[in-house]
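REVIEWER CHECKLIST
Item 1: Sequence provided? yes
Item 2: Single chain? yes
Item 3: Sequence as submitted:
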Amino acid sequence: MLTFVAAAILSFMIFFPLVVATSVFKVLDEKQSSKFLRIFFPKYYLYGFALSGIGLLLSTYYDNKLSILIFLFIMFGFVFSRQVLMPMINKSKDLKNESKFNKLHKFSVVINFLQIIGCIFLLVSYLK
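Item 4: Structure as written out by the authors:
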């Protein structure tokens, strides 16, 4: 079951940049894409939080300490991104502070990348 949860998180996290983001920016203008992403991201982070919460509960049940730590990290990344980082990114975009927006956006990408690495690590450890 832990394998399924880690794979579910990894798959939706990879699906977004490969499919959703590329489609949004090809089809919608900047204003529309911004509007869409502001509706999409809170749900994206909430979904990731819920899945990583399930992973944390299962890890606790199976007493898998490494999984507990990694799912906690992944969960924290979703909460921090949704509650702290996303409002800061939106505010910098609204204020047309491109430098701050770019730094914050890069930080969110780093968090996402580390979460993906965490999921890959979990999957590799589960499949041994």
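Item 5: Key structural point noted by reviewer: The two ends are 15 Å apart (CA to CA).
Item 6: Recommendation: ____
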